[in-house]
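INFO batch 0412 | record 1 of 1 | parsing
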Amino acid sequence: MPELLATLAAFAMCALGCAVLALSQREHWHATGKLPPYPGPRALRRLRTAASLLLAGALAPCVAAHGAGFGTLLWALLVSAGGISVAFVLAWRPRWLAPLAILAATLFA
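INFO prediction complete | emitting tokens
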């Protein structure tokens, strides 16, 4: 059971990291709907740094729960799964990312 929770936490971090990374692009930011203005370069740098930290931080629960070999492989697969899930959300329901964009604009402005 702890392995499943660690894997789910890692997937959530990967999906969130990919979503934040996608929102750092102007096209995806505007696709989410009526939001605060697109962030400036300094806020974008913070946004991308946060996304990178989320993606890198997802490695820790994978390695802790599954060991270095399989944990690293699982992390790579979870990053891919997170990216694909965000791509599907952006293609079909981009407004689902609006709350995250508002939160990002509030935190990183």
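INFO post-check: The radius of gyration is 15 Å.
INFO record closed
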